[in-house]
């Protein structure tokens, strides 16, 4: 368990430095070990260490770096504008950013963990999630597997789990990497062999965190730590050894920069590509990684597919940025044949393509679409104004009805602050998507609501806002909001947004937000509310039903073009 700090702002940096299998010929001694990296959690109330991390990344650009941000034992209750800037700076330097998420040893609600993950993604565009306090007893494997699948499905390719000690072999693969040692001192070879199951799985599945030690010898690294994929070795100790970088950090990074003069090449082609249709709008792909990575770690895969039945290949995904050897192609047309090929990517370039494979999507009736998925809109209510002294806006006596397939969705448009919480009858909603580039636009939701109650929207500070609520029945409770989209402009115009749905017969909502000196009209979809707070904010929402999975676009006409934000969500029908 990583040490936690209470405070209004701190972050954890995790640096994964992956290096090749050859020895470097430079003034430093290079660790000549296969695919080992360095993982460094740094908990700090200050940002003085970030420049050194950026400096070392710029000095050693071939060394991959991953940073874990942690505003307050999680994403905190609201966005941090300073952190946005820092994340962008790190990503611009080629650093991958992931967010800290506490799982409470499998005791924390998966919905809450997923909500934190989406806050990280929506606010900071992170590339993955670090799951701390990971359980290591039997019975929680599916909990972490489902969380990893959720994170991956939302475009975040990396998950790291931290039980901090030996775990069960059944947890291998539930996350992309497991921290299997976290304590003072270096682990013995017998401990490493035991905790990594004697080489039964790739070393890249495991990490260790060794505290209060000197930079180890090359012989220790090559003989012992070749059993793990990532290491964190620091001379820091005490009540919080994570608030500073190791004193030898610069040397450590330089020593791991294995530009040995041995020429790497592009990898060999992936093999065994297969495809199968899982619905009328989805085809699943699976393949085998290249037998030869060319001496450089595989960084991802390119996925190609001919467009509209032509014989010319087009790039579907330029780089998956993941070592996963599966992919799901969604938003397809029913009863249609699609063909695919895969190429592997390393630091040198892209391999020749794999074998080709084809699959035909199911018909809509076979895919469980048109006859069984029916969403009913039961109620819509909205209000607007300046939030009260408690920064709250209330929709009174909102009725959601009764039933087990209900969903409450609340949309908020505001001019100069974001939402911190929304409750219905005291029950908290979860934020699903937001955009705040010019004006705030957010969708929040609650599964299985019942009865009548007040909806209380609490903002981060004084603002003018428009809040509207939808109640639905006939909604898939396992995955109520299948897809989200967001858009904003940087030069004046009228709001518009496109979203690619995953399933047939789903319902799509959009929510534009524009300065209140402008009004909105002529929506492409059916208008549900359209409220102007003069010279403050205009918030609106519309809906449409999508008979088959496809891309749909909603547009609004602004009375005079201006800057705006727009978000959209796909409500998934129960099937």
Top keywords for this entry?
8-stranded parallel sheet; 575 residues; mainly beta; 5-stranded antiparallel sheet; 12% helix
Describe the structure.
It is a single chain. With 575 residues, this protein is mainly beta. Helix content is 12%, strand content 38%. The protein contains 7 helices and 35 strands. The chain has an 8-stranded parallel beta sheet with strand order 2-10-9-8-7-6-5-4. A 5-stranded antiparallel beta sheet has the order 18-26-20-24-23. A 5-stranded antiparallel beta sheet has the order 27-35-29-32-31, with no helix packed on it. Strand 23 and strand 24 form a beta hairpin. Helix 3 runs parallel beside helix 4. It starts with 10 loop residues before the first strand and ends with a strand. The relative contact order is 0.10. Residues 5-34 and 365-372 have low confidence and may be disordered.
Question: Mind describing the biggest β-sheet?
Answer: 8 strands, parallel
Oligomer: single chain
| Terminal-residue CA separation | 40 Å
Portion of residues in beta strands equals 35-45%
* Helix/sheet category: mainly beta
What coarse outline follows from CA principal-axis ratios?
A: globular
Rg over alpha carbons? 25 Å
Q: Quick check: average pLDDT?
A: 83
Annotation field: number of helices: 7
- Into which percent range does the helicity of residues fall? 10-25%
Based on DSSP secondary structure assignment, what is the total number of beta strands?
35
Low-confidence stretches: 5-34, 365-372
Strand order of the largest sheet: 2-10-9-8-7-6-5-4
């Amino acid at each position: 368990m990583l040490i936690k700090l209470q405070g209004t702002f701190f972050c954890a940096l995790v640096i994964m430095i992956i290096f090749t299998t050859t020895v470097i010929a430079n003034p430093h001694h290079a660790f000549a070990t296969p695919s080992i990296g360095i993982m460094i959690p740094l908990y700090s109330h200050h940002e003085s260490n970030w420049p050194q991390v950026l400096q070392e990344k710029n000095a050693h650009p071939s060394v991959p770096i991953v940073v874990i941000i942690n505003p307050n034992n999680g994403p905190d209750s609201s966005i941090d504008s300073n952190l946005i800037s820092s994340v962008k700076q790190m990503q611009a330097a080629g650093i991958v950013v992931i967010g800290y998420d506490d799982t409470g040893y499998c005791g924390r609600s998966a919905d809450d963990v997923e909500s934190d993950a989406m806050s990280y993604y929506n606010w900071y565009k992170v590339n993955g999630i670090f799951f701390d306090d990971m359980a290591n007893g039997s019975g929680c494997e599916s909990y972490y597997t489902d969380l990893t699948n959720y994170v991956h499905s939302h475009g975040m390719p990396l998950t790291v789990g931290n039980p901090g000690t030996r775990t069960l072999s059944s947890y291998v693969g539930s996350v992309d990497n497991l921290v299997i040692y976290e304590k003072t001192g270096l682990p013995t070879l017998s401990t490493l062999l035991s905790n990594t199951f004697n080489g039964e799985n790739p070393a890249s599945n495991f990490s260790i965190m060794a505290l209060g030690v000197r930079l180890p010898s090359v012989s220790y690294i090559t003989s012992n730590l070749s059993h793990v994929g990532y290491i964190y070795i620091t001379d820091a100790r005490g009540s919080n050894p994570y608030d500073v970088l190791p004193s030898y950090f610069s040397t450590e990074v330089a020593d791991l920069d294995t530009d040995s003069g041995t020429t790497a090449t592009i990898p060999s082609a992936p093999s065994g590509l297969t495809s199968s249709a899982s619905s009328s709008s989805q085809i699943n792909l699976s393949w085998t990684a290249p037998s030869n990575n060319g001496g450089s770690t595989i960084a991802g895969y390119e996925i190609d597919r001919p467009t509209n039945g032509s014989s010319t290949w087009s790039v579907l995904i330029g780089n998956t940025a993941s070592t996963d050897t599966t992919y799901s192609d969604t938003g397809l047309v029913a009863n249609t044949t699609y063909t695919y090929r895969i190429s592997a990517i390393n630091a040198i370039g892209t391999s020749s393509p794999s074998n080709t494979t084809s699959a035909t999507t199911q018909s809509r009736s076979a895919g469980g679409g048109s006859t069984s998925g029916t969403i009913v809109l039961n109620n819509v209510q909205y209000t607007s104004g300046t939030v009260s002294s408690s920064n709250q806006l209330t929709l009174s006596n909102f009725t959601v009805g009764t039933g087990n397939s209900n969903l409450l969705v609340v949309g908020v448009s505001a001019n100069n602050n974001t939402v911190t919480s929304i409750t219905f009858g005291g029950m908290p909603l979860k934020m699903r998507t937001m955009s705040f580039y010019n004006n705030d636009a957010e969708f929040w939701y609650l599964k299985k609501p019942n009865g009548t109650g007040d909806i209380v929207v609490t903002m981060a500070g004084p603002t003018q806002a428009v809040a509207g609520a939808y109640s639905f029945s006939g909604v898939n409770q396992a995955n109520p909001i299948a897809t989200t989209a967001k858009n904003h402009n940087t030069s004046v115009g009228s709001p518009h947004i496109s979203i690619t749905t995953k399933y047939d017969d789903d319902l799509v909502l959009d929510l534009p937000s524009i300065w209140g000196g402008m009004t909105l009209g002529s929506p492409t979809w059916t208008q549900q509310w359209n409220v102007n707070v003069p010279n403050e904010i205009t918030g609106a929402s519309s809906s449409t039903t999508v008979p088959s999975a496809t891309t749909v676009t909603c547009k609004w006409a602004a009375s005079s073009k201006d800057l705006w934000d727009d978000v959209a969500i796909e409500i998934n029908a129960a099937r």
